[in-house]
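Example record

The entry below shows one chain as it appears in the dataset: sequence first, then structure tokens.
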Amino acid sequence: MVIAAAAAAWAVFVANDAEPDSPCSITVSGHNEGPINANCEEFTDEVSSGTLREARDAARKYADVPPPRSGPSPFLIAGAPHGLKVRTSGTVDGVQIGAVINQSVVWGECQTRTDFDPDRTDNTGAAWLRIKWGTNQPNAQVGFSEPSGKYSGWVYMGFTVPAGHNGAVRSC
């Protein structure tokens, strides 16, 4: 049981001490691009050193703000002090294609549920967010998600918080 839990955690987390850039200043085309970017900046500044619970509590004020109608939506990585792996899929067969550090923003396209729940200690279940990513090649390098990313990657949603919107992105 302990070995399985450790293996599941390894499938999701990665260690790195790099600092994130200012991610919310990237322009996203879509209906709400102005408010979403401003809300994202405000939100990430507010929770920059908080816990996952604090970030989720702070995000509640955006419950009535829908994500952009087109283009990806910003999500904050929170509660992952060793970072979060980006994978080729949200399944057990997914391969690591990079990593994002805690408190960075990823740009989510859609979400889905699979049979792979890497953290059975939370209430998230097997929920995965497809993000814009810069590569599809296996690696453990820390990178940053950008709305213009050429490829897609997947991150476990247990450590993502909608940044400036309600998180209701479409299903994949």
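Notes for this example: Confidence is low (pLDDT under 50) at residues 1-11, 13-21, 26-34. The chain has three helices and eight strands.
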